[in-house]
Amino acid sequence: MIGIDLGSRHIKIVQMLDGKIIKTAIYDTIKFYRRWGMSADQKLPIDWEELGFAADGITATGYGKIAVDIEGAVHIPEIQAHAAGAVFQTGRHDFTLLDIGGQDTKIIMVRGGKVADFLTNDRCAASSGRYMENMAHVLGISLQELSSHYQDPVSLSSTCAIFGETEIISKIVEGHSMSQLAAGVNHTLYRRFATQLKQLGSDKLLVSGGGAFNSALINIIAGETGYDTQRLENYQFNGAIGCCVYGG
Amino acid sequence: MERIAFTTSIPVEILLAAQKIPVDLNNVFITDPRAAVMVEKAEEAGYPRNTCGWIKGLYTAALESRPEAVIAVMQGDCSNTLALMETLQLKGVPTIPFAFPFERDAEMLQLQIKKLQDYFAAGGAAIHEVKKQLDEIRKLCQQIDEMTWKDNLVSGGENHYYLVSSSDFNSDPLQFKQDMENFIADAGQREPFRQEIRLAYIGVPPIFTDLYTMIESMGARVVFNEVQRQFSMPYKTADINQQYLMYTYPYGAFARLQDILEQISLRRVDGVIHYTQTFCFRQIEDMIFREKIKLPFLTLEGEGPGKLDGRSRMRLEAFINMLK
User: Fold this and answer.
1) Which residues of A98-112 are buried (b: 16+ CB within 10 A; e: fewer)?
2) Whole-structure pTM over 0.80, yes or no?
3) CA-to-CA distance for B83 and B217, rounded, in angstroms?
4) pLDDT tens figures, A98-129
5) What is d(CA A228, CA A213) in angstroms, rounded to the nearest whole number?
6) Which domain holds residue B14?
7) For chain A, which residues make up each domain, given as ranges?
8) Looking at the domain that runs over A2-122+193-247, which CATH code has it been given?
9) Do B318 and A118 touch (CB under 8 A)?
10) ipTM score over 0.85, yes or no
């Protein structure tokens, strides 16, 4: 079974056999679409062998799943794919899943192994992976560096990803240290989804998506909410794993 | 006959009794294939980008359709209507203010209705006669509504169309009556819809053009359109004073809530979609509905006219899937 998660920044592919992950791959979304293009009937024909996967059943999800139709694939809703992935990865049935994606953040409450409720960020990308990338770029540091600071943050008031850039520049001028600036960015990220996280909170919080890479953010979430917070082992592949589970 | 436009439902009986043609600006705006351009035109005129799409559309609709006057509902609808009225005055469009009283006060409402009646020099007997005729047409709206939730013969989108159109009866009550009679006859011959998930749609009508068809393609159907149904005024009343007092929409979230709770229970609804407009104060009222309605609840937000965006489709699909 192949699971494919069509994200706004990355395409994640997972192959599973007998309940085990046997191969994973990740591609830049734009490059992937450029490579595989669109056929006349609006289906994306992918040569699985060329990618190194053995094509059997294919299940797809992700932001592009309505606009992009993978040839021969069953398409499933994103929220359900992420929930199924987290249940599979942890064996847990009652938790809240926070998925921090490239352009949006999802909070999914799972009870008895099924989606009980969900919220997504409002129409703004300020708490997404893209915001982290932009801020790291403005600060001139790597994502890794950005993701390691959470103490003594500068206060950033803007909730907008674009105005946030202007604000951080003025903080640089004020002479704050890089660690304070990076911590400030990470606290802004948290505040952007904090109220929604509390609305659908559980004692156990699982974190997935590319944004889960940010260890400082996970520290902030755990400290601020008091939830038992855990980053999923295959956090970036969780949606694709969910596809394999859902489709299999 | 001269056309009188309005910004939301008003006692349309008065206009018809005065031999005027009623025009709901909302319907003019949203049914225009250039709806998105109309929003842009208002922005070019100076309307801020972060203002409700409907208000901007209404502004351009009023300027382009040049009615004899616009009745602007100053209380009981959108708080931006004051500025809409003023900017229309700036462009030389005559405006007539109307207000639904905040506390649903019968005397205050009667006074407002009387003022409107005097403005158009409409006689009481003529208004009563029009009300009797419209009551017959409103009954057809109720029949379509029942065919939606009871008989499952009418789609959510068709229900929306006929009920939302009852604010101005498509500017021609007799033709509208004929259209509904034809529709009822046709729909009566159909096989019932089989969608397993029954949804309620609460809030102002959607700015999206494909919401109902999208919902139906996902295996669900709207069987209750809250505000649209209120536009059709499904109550037995002796006069228009009573009728517009029964009407819930202008009297706040709690007046609406009572009607919503009754109807979602009666119609055996599985989940509720609350539609709010971007930049609208009703986004705050979402708190009230979310807390008081004990059913799975999805808040959907729309900004400009057009098809559902990818994100809203994703959320809608996940919500319907969750209910299955």
Assistant:
1) bbbbbbbbbbbbbee
2) yes
3) 40
4) 999 888 899 999 999 999 999 987 666 666 88
5) 17
6) 1-324
7) 2-122+193-247
8) 3.30.420.40
9) yes
10) no
